[in-house]
Amino acid sequence: MTTLQQYLDNKYKTKEERKKVKEIDVLEINKELETWSRAECTWVVDKLLEGGELDLSEYVNLEHLLLDNHSLTGSKWLRTPFTKLTLGVKKHLKRFKGWDNIRTGELDLSGCSIFLYFDCRENSLTKIIYPNNDPQGWVQKQWNDSRKPLFSELEKLIDISDLDEWIFNYDFNKVGDFEYHKICGKERHFNCLDSVSIYNLGKKVTARNLIVLSRLLTDEKEFKKGKLKSYEKKINEFAERELSFFEEMTLSKNWTEEEKKEVVDKILSGDRELLERLQDLPYLSKEFQFSSTQYFWTRIEDLEKKSTNLKDELAMEREEAEKMQKQMDEFYRKNIPELKTTLAGFSQNILQLNVENKRLKEKNKRLKRESNSRLDNNPLNKEWRERQIKKITEQKDQKIKELKELEEKLNDLTINQILIEK
Asked: pLDDT of 124-158, one tens digit each?
C-alpha cells in the first residue's frame, strides 16, 4: 500500500521540482490514479492512498493544501488519516483543509505567514500553533473579515457582544473540546477554532441583521399577524448550520436599498412604533430597549420643550424689533424738515468758506509778489514782510480748520439722512 508521502516523493523526485509545486489536492490525485468506480459510484478503497506521516517541508511554495477526507458524503479520499503532519515554512500558503483527516494531536501552523483559510473540523486535535505565533491576531482578523455589514447603520441596532466576547476571550486550551465550540453551530462538529467555525459565527450576525430588517420593513398588519416567526425560525436554523447558500438568503420581499435606508434612518431617529417590533429580540442593543431607554425618551421630550421655548423667545424678539423699528420711523418722519433746514445752512456756510479761502489764497500770492519786488537786503522791509506772511498764514490755517470741522459735520448729517431715507 502506498502513502501520500511516497506518491509525492515519486512524482517530484528532486528538491527543485518540489519547489515548483503550488497545490496538493487529494481529490485531484485520486482522479489521476483512477480510483473512482463508476459501477459503485464511489472510490475504490483498496486503490486509495494512505495518510500516515507526511512531511511537506521541501514544498516551500505551496499555496493550496487540500487534505480532506470527504466525510460529508460518507466516502473517503484517503484510506487512513495522517498520524504526523509537518508543514514547515509556508510563506505563500493561502488555504489549508484537513477535514476529518488529521490525527496528529498537535498541528503547527506557525510557519504560514499569509494564512487566509484553515478548515480542520472533526479532528482529534489537542493543540494548534497558529500562524506567526499570534493566535489572537489571526482569530480577530478572521472574525472581522467574516462579519461584512449587511446594510449601513443597521448594525447599531444589533448586539453581538456575546459572540465578540467568545472570540476575543477564546481559550486556546480548549482546542478539541466539542462542547466549548457548540456556539459555532450545531449541525457540524466544530472542535477547534478555524476559518469555518469563525465564519459560522459571522452567519449568526447576518441572521440577526436579516431578522431585524425584516421586522422593520414588513407591513404593520402583517407584522401583527405573526407571519414573521416561521421566517425567523428558518433564518436562525440556517445560521446554526454550515450551508454554503446561506449568503444568498434574502428577505421574503425584495425591498430596494432606498426603502431599507429610509426605515433604518427612521428607527435610529427614535420611531417608537418600529422599536416596539424589536423589543422581544434578545440581541437588540441596550440603547434601543424600552427597559433601559427612559433617558432616551426623556431626552427627546426635553429637546422638544427647548425647541418650543426657543420658538417663543424668537417670536418675542421679532415683535420687539418690529416695535423699535416703528418708533424710529415715526421719529425720523417728524424731524426730517428740521434736519433738511440744518443741512441747507451747513451747505451755505461751506460755500462761503470756500469763497473766502479762495480770496485769501489770491491775497497771499499778491503779497508775495509785492514783497519780492522790494529790496531783500532792507531789514525793515524784510521784517515787515515776514510779519505779514505769518499773519496771513495764521488766518489761512484758522479758516482751513473751520472748513474741515464743517465738512465733518456735514458728512455725519449726510450719513444720517441716508439711513433715514432707507
From this structure: 788 888 887 788 888 888 898 888 777 778 989 99
Residue 208 in grid coordinates: 440577526
**Residue in 206, 199, 291 with CA at minimum distance from that of residue 214:** 206
Q: Do 354 and 403 meet the contact criterion of CB atoms below 8 Å apart?
A: yes
Closest CA to 90 of 70, 69, 118: 118
Estimate to the nearest angstrom the gap between the alpha carbon of 26 and the chain centroid: 43
Give the model confidence (pLDDT) of 30-64 as tens digits: 888 766 555 455 556 667 788 899 999 999 999 99
What is the grid cell recorded at 29? 490525485
CA 96 to chain centre: 33
Q: Between the CA of residue 271 and those of 276, 278, 292, 328, 413, what are the distances in Å?
A: 9, 12, 16, 49, 61
pTM of this prediction? Answer: 0.62
Distance CA 341, CA 347 (A): 10
Buried b (16+ CB within 10 A) or exposed e, 16-51: eebeebeebbbeebbeeeebeeeeeeebeeeebbbb
Which cell goes with 222? 402583517
Return the number of other C-beta atoms located less than 10 Å from residue 318's C-beta. Answer: 10
Q: How many angstroms separate the most distant Cα atoms in the chain?
A: 151
Cβ contact 175:181 at 8 Å: no
User: Which residues lie across from 127 on neighbouring strands?
Assistant: 106
Angle in degrees, CA 120, 122, 127, rounded to 5: 60
